[in-house]
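Hey L., structure's done. Input below.
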Amino acid sequence: MQFQDFLSAVRGRLTLRLAIILAVVFGLLAPFVILIPYYQISIESAARERTTADHQRLADILAVILSEPLWQITPEIAKVSSEVVYSDPRVAEIRVVTLPDHKEFIRNDTRRKLQEGPFKVEKRKIKHGEQVIGEVELTLAEDILRETLASEFKRYASSAFVSLIVAVVFILLVLQWRLVQPIKLLMTESDRLANGQLNEPISFKREDELGHLALSLEATRQALQRSFSELEVKNQQLLEYSGTLESKVRQRTQELETLNLTLETALNNVNNAQNELARVERMAALGSMVAGVAHELNTPLGNCLLVASTLEEETKQLTRMMDAGAMRKSDLTRYANTANESTKLLLRGLQHAARLVGDFKQVAVDQSSAQRRQFGLLITLQELAALLNSSLRKTPFTLELDIPADIQLDSYPGPLGQVFTNLVNNAVNHGLDGLPEGRMYCTAHRQGDHVLIVFEDNGKGIAPEVIKRVFEPFFTTKFGQGGSGLGLSITFNIVSNVLGGEIRVSSEPAKGARFEISIPLVAPGQANSANPLLNN
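Output:
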C-alpha cells in the first residue's frame, strides 16, 4: 500500500512537460539498452569467428612449413620457420612433437607467461608425403580479442549516447512549440469551463488534432449551457417526486416480504407432498412386486396342493385295503410308484417356491432399506428381472440383460433396484403402452472408477417438449390415469443423492428412449448410513 501511495503521489505531481521529457528519454533509451546486448553479441560473435578462422589457418600453415624441417630433423630451421606465425601477438605457444614416439621437437612459449588467456589450442598432423611424422599444437590467447571488443563497445556506446542527446533536444523543441504551449491554452479554457464561465465562446484557430479538441470543448460548453437549464427543471421535478418515493419503496418491500412468506409456505407444502408421494410410490412398487411373486407362487403351490391331495386319497385307499385284508402286491407297487412321482412333483414345486421366496426376500430387504454392502451388479439385476418377469409374462414385452459378471459395487443395492424397477415400469406404462410387442434392453460396462448402465426400449419414444421435464416432480403424461409423476423424479434423486452419480435421457419419437446412468463403483458416504431420501 505504501508503494501504491507513492506512485499515486508521483503521478499527481507529474507535469505534462516532465511526462513528455521522460517519455522521449525512455522511448529512445529503451531501444538503445535493448540493442546493447545484441550488438555486443554480434561483435563478439564476428570477432570470435575471425579469430577461429585465423587460428585454423595458422595451424594449417605451421603443419605445412614444419614438414620438411621435421623430416630433416633440423630444430633450428623449424624455429625460424615458426617465427613467421609466432610474430602474431595473439599466438601464445607453438609446440611440435614427433610421432609416433611423442617426443618434443620444438617449443616456443615465451609470450604465454605474460598473457592472461583464456587459451584455445588447435592441433594439426604434420605429414611428409602420405606419412604422419609429427603433430603441431598452436595455442592462441584471447587477451587482444577482449581488448578489441571493449574498444568497439565503447565506440558504439559513445556514438549512441551522442545520438540520444541530439534526438532528445530536437524532439523537445518540437513538442514545446507544437504541443505543450497549445495544451496550456486549452487547459486555461477548460478551467474556465470548470468554473462555470460558459458565456464566452472558445476560439482556437488550428487544423490539427488540438484544433479539433478546441472545437470539442466549444461543443461541450454549448451542451453544458443547455444541460444546466434542463437540470434546473429536473431538480425541481425530483424534489417533488422524492416526497412520494419513500412511501412507495416501503409499500413494495412489504409486498415482497408477504410474497416470500407465501412462496416458502408453498415450497414446504410441495416438499411434504413430494416426500409422502415418494413413500407411497415405493410402497406401491413393493406391493406390485409382492402381487407378482404371489402369482408366481400360486402355480407351484397349487400343483403341490393337488399332488398332496392325490397322495392323501391314495394313502387312504391303501389303508382301507390293508384293514380289509384285500391288499395285493400290485396295489402296493402302484402306491409306491404314485408316492415316488408325487414326492418328485412336491419337491420340484416346493424348491421353485423356496427359490422365489428367497429372491423376493433379498429384493424386499434391499428395497425397504438403504443398507450399503458389496454386491455383483449382474446378480442383483438378474434377481430383480426374475421378479419383474412375473408381471411381464402378462404383456407382450420382454426384458433382456447384457451385463459382465465381474462388475462389483460397494453401494446401495436397494435404491439401485428401485431405480431399475422404476425404469422398467416407466417403459411398460409409457414407452411400450399400446404396442403389440416391445423389447427392453439393459447393458453395463466399466468406465474407470464408474460403471455406465444403459437402459433402453424400442417403444414410442419421448416427445421433445416432454423430455425436458421427465425428471420434474409431479410431471406425468397420464395424470388422472394412475400416474403420479414421481417415478423418474425419485429415480433422479436416488441416482444423484444416494448413489452419487448422474442420469441422462435421450429419445426420438417412434425410436424408443435411452437412459444412461453413471454411478461410482464405490458409493460416496460412510458404510451402513441411511439416506434421508429413502427414509421418508
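Residues 362-368, 529-536 have pLDDT under 50 and may be disordered. The first helix runs from residue 2 to 13.

-- N.
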